[in-house]
Specification:
By secondary structure, the protein is α+β, with helices and mostly antiparallel strands. The protein contains 4 helices and 4 strands, in the order E-E-E-H-E-H-H-H. It has 2 domains: about 60 residues, 2-Layer Sandwich (Double Stranded RNA Binding Domain); about 55 residues.
Length: about 130
Amino acid sequence: MKDKPRFKVAVRQDPEDHSAWLANVVGAPGAQTFGRSLAEAKRHGIEVVALWFELEPEDFEIDWDMRLGKLAMPVKQARTAMAHAEADRERRDDAVRALTGAGLSYRDIAELLGLSHQRVAQISRAS
């Protein structure tokens, strides 16, 4: 089976209109579009590649080159924080399961972990 062609699409916030996003197909001068939201710009980017290269969207892949400039650092920090938060939730849930497995009551687990007994019950039931 033949690999799908890959196209690089650079996306950046419009420097003059911060409510718009610009999308350019790298290496294809004139193959550009925009959107009022990031999701819209990406949808339009897919359409531009399809029209420009006369392909169906399912017949190619896009490598999104997000050029965030000053926005890059807060986005990176937020993604890192969210990943840490998810790992913390998993450790908390593992602790609840271990303590429940050891026979502790929801109320005792709640007291030990600083949670409500209702939250302990939710976590325990979700397992």
